[in-house]
Design brief:
A: about 120 residues, mainly alpha, about 70% helix, B: 2 domains
Chain lengths: ~120, ~180
């Protein structure tokens, strides 16, 4: 088995993920590109498990499992954020989000808490 | 070139090709489906590399759960059906940085391994991996379970606008809730 083949595959996938994160405007597509990067790292870990003789056997594969769990947690929270963004702004384009703007008030301006009761 | 090398080469070509389509296609739903192809080819790579458990976990969690979640998000954000032109921003910097990262890492790894061969160690079956996880890696495993729980709670808090506010704001929103009960 020649380890250079999966290593180069992983490097190219990581580059594609970086390109996707920087290029895409839609937040869901940005999350897909992040998944590509995470999978490239997993491939590196699994390949390194065959090439590096570590003290603990199969450490690379255990780490790959951990990264898969982290990716699942990341996608859950990330999609919650994206859906909340869509609910507030009716768009998921990441370059429409103003980082310095104060949060949108939850009720119309001028209506006080007393009036709401 | 042995059979394993040829398989790795073919699956790697499929994965990279599908990855290119994921980041370049104009149709949102197709990007998710190309992601399935890419992740499936990577699962095949894991099988060839002897990581059986990781391969099946990849199929279960990535292809089964993550892609389904992504497609749900595509539908819930009312993405247009068919090609849309506003998915990309002008991207010479993206091509430069992404291509630089990919090709730079490739050059580093090719320089490090240079067509050398290694003998495959024993396959990573569920028995061996479970032994490692529950002897050497118990603490990270438990920390990871706490992290999953906090991610779950965080997702629930994020997607419910009526919790997390304080003071009169929260009372006002509680008064306007029709479903009653904010907990």
């Amino acid at each position: 088995m020649r380890p250079v083949i999966p290593y180069v595959t992983a490097a190219l996938l990581f580059g594609l993920g970086v390109y996707g994160v920087l290029r895409r405007r839609n937040a869901v597509l940005v999350l897909m590109a992040v998944e590509l990067m995470l999978n490239a790292v997993n491939l590196i870990l699994v390949t390194a498990d065959t090439t590096v003789r570590a003290v603990l056997p199969h450490s690379g594969q255990v780490f790959a499992l951990f990264v898969i769990v982290l990716a699942a947690a990341e996608i859950g929270v990330g999609l919650a954020i994206v859906l909340q963004l869509y609910r507030l702004r009716a768009t998921v384009a990441v370059d429409d989000v103003a980082l310095t703007e104060p949060p949108v008030p939850a009720r119309p301006v001028g209506q006080s808490a007393e009036a709401a009761r | 070139m042995t059979g394993a090398d040829l398989l790795l080469l073919a699956l790697g070509a499929v994965a990279v090709g599908a990855g290119v389509l994921v980041v370049t296609t104009k149709q949102l739903v197709r990007a998710g489906l190309y992601l399935v192809v890419c992740l499936g080819a990577l699962a095949g790579d894991y099988l060839v590399l002897g990581a059986e458990l990781v391969a099946w976990v990849q199929v279960l969690i990535y292809v089964g759960a993550v892609v389904v979640l992504l497609l749900f998000a595509v539908m819930l954000t009312r993405a247009p059906i068919g090609a849309s032109d506003d998915l990309d921003r002008p991207g010479w910097p993206a091509a430069l940085i992404g291509g630089g990262a990919g090709l730079g890492l490739s050059v580093l790894l090719v320089d490090a391994y240079r067509w050398s061969t290694v003998t495959m160690p024993g396959a990573g079956t569920a028995e061996r991996l479970g032994e490692q996880i529950f002897t050497s890696w118990v603490l990270p495993f438990e920390v990871l379970s706490v992290l999953l729980l906090s991610a779950l709670v965080g997702a629930v808090v994020l997607s419910r606008p009526d919790i997390g506010r304080r003071g009169d704001d929260a009372e006002a929103s509680a008064g306007s809730l029709t479903s009653g009960g904010r907990r």
